[in-house]
Amino acid sequence: MHLIHDDTCPSFEGTLELIGRRWTGSIVKAAGEGARRFGEYRAMIEGVSDRLLSQRLKELEAAGLIDRTVIPTTPVQILYQLTPDGQALVDALLPLAQWSKRRSGHRGAKQVPLA
Q1: Is residue 7's pLDDT more than 50?
Q2: 9, 64 contact by CB (below 8 A)
Q3: Separation CA 27–CA 57 (nearest Å)
Q4: Which residues pair with 66 in a beta bridge?
């Protein structure tokens, strides 16, 4: 047996914690499918509360995965868009989502929600 430790472990674990929070995966997926305005995210993600959606968007912005743009019109418009790192995360998660979908059909496999 050998110890598993390298420089990537802490950042990888942090990424897993961020993406594993409730609704974060759905929000990133919605962004990847073209959601830009708050109402579009809310419409695409059934069951998410406004408070939690707002909180997760702020977390993703702080992590550098989503850009928030304020357009000074009347009324003010706020747009959310994946950053290049956010898009790279979506691309990296696609094989995991496909694996999860295939695995959900296996006997004895517990189905884990991706939201």
Answers
A1: yes
A2: no
A3: 8
A4: 82
pLDDT of residue 3: 66
Residue 114: CB atoms within 10 Å: 16
Read off the pTM: 0.79
The amino acid occupying position 97 is: A
Beta pairing partners, 70: 78
47 contacts: CB under 8 Å, gap ≥ 6: 115
E-assigned strand segments in the chain: 66-71, 77-82
Give the whole-angstrom CA distance, residue 108 versus residue 103.
10
Tens of pLDDT, residues 61-114: 999 999 999 999 999 999 999 999 999 999 999 998 889 888 887 665 555 555
**Percent share of the chain, pLDDT over 70:** 84
CATH of region 13-103, choose from 2.50.20.10, 2.40.128.20, 1.10.10.10, 3.30.300.20: 1.10.10.10
